[in-house]
Amino acid sequence: MSARIIDGKAIAAGLRAEVAAGVARLKESHGITPGLAVVLVGEDPASAVYVRNKGRQTVEAGMASFEHRLDASTSQAALLDLVRRLNDDPAVNGILVQLPLPGHIDPAAVIDTIDPAKDVDGFHVVNAGRLATGLPALVPCTPVGCVILAKQVHPDLTGLEAVVVGRSNIVGKPVAQLLLAENCTVTIAHSRTRAVADVCRRADLLVAAVGRPEMIRGGWVKPGATVIDVGINRVAAGDGTARLVGDVAFDEARQVAGAITPVPGGVGPMTIACLLRNTLEATRRQHGLEAPG
Ligand SMILES: Nc1nc(=O)c2c([nH]1)NC[C@@H]1CN(c3ccc(C(=O)N[C@@H](CCC(=O)O)C(=O)O)cc3)C=[N+]21
């Protein structure tokens, strides 16, 4: 058997087109242009690529993009000052501070300073708490992208055994919350889980978010299962160049799974599309407009 490959790149392009149409309507009917501010501290080359892609796709969706590149030695106080200025700037509807931050800056202090209404990453405790308690929230982008991709295969996720490998605040925990809200039976596995391969083999829906290249092997996958690979790991290829791989050993898993997301071209593009959607939604709410439909 060979799994269906879930085309995240195409699905993300469709979602971005919907967002662009929503932005155009907002401009036409209310004269409002959503604005997204992205803050990058330091020079991490991989981060710089993401920031550039986000900026380009933001503009393509008809939104304003504000980029703030700060030196790696920027103090926490200076970064918090910038975040407060962005909170107070009416042209800025969404704020993303790229993680990871340099070691001398406490990411929790930064996230805590972002206005929850502009927290398009959905990382603020207010948004995490609203998600956990079933209130309307800005929801983290990668987890939403995972659920949209899973729904391509299972339009109704009700009753599925879902196993999430990874317990980060950014992916593992929020994706588990979203799957619970979709009526899955959710297990969160992590580095201390015993017999993790056996736990994974129970999953109808397996979400890999551990950040370890190709950790999840073909033998961990239940035949016919849907596999969502959140990992984006740069590893050295045989010829010395860098190659992107997921947290799943793709060539093994695709022999067993019913459907699987590739890396690249799976969850990654969905993350940016959902960021743009969150920015549009945040803008509407800040102007007291309900999201249509
Ligand atoms: N506050 C914050 N929010 C984030 O959302 C955030 C962050 N910090 N720090 C870094 C990670 C990483 N991230 C990616 C987004 C898109 C792709 C993406 O589009 N990847 C493409 C291309 C990858 C490539 O070719 O390099 C793909 O998977 O097909 C990847 C990675 C968002 N992050």
UniProtKB/TrEMBL annotation:
Pathway(s) this gene product operates in, as recorded in its UniProt entry: One-carbon metabolism; tetrahydrofolate interconversion
E.C. code: 1.5.1.5, 3.5.4.9
Keyword NADP set for record: yes
Catalyzed reactions: (6R)-5,10-methylene-5,6,7,8-tetrahydrofolate + NADP(+) = (6R)-5,10-methenyltetrahydrofolate + NADPH; (6R)-5,10-methenyltetrahydrofolate + H2O = (6R)-10-formyltetrahydrofolate + H(+)
Tetrahydrofolate dehydrogenase/cyclohydrolase catalytic domain ranges (all copies): 6-121
Domain Tetrahydrofolate dehydrogenase/cyclohydrolase NAD(P)-binding: 140-286
GO molecular function: methenyltetrahydrofolate cyclohydrolase activity; methylenetetrahydrofolate dehydrogenase (NADP+) activity
Gene Ontology CC annotations of this record: cytosol
GO annotation, biological process: L-histidine biosynthetic process; methionine biosynthetic process; purine nucleotide biosynthetic process; tetrahydrofolate interconversion
Keyword annotations from UniProtKB, A to Z: Amino-acid biosynthesis, Histidine biosynthesis, Hydrolase, Methionine biosynthesis, Multifunctional enzyme, NADP, One-carbon metabolism, Oxidoreductase, Purine biosynthesis
Keyword Oxidoreductase found: yes
Binding site for NADP(+): G166, R167, S168, I232
Family membership noted in the UniProt record: Belongs to the tetrahydrofolate dehydrogenase/cyclohydrolase family.
Its biological purpose: Catalyzes the oxidation of 5,10-methylenetetrahydrofolate to 5,10-methenyltetrahydrofolate and then the hydrolysis of 5,10-methenyltetrahydrofolate to 10-formyltetrahydrofolate.
HAMAP family according to UniProt: THF_DHG_CYH
Quaternary structure and partners: Homodimer.
Protein's UniProt name: Bifunctional protein FolD
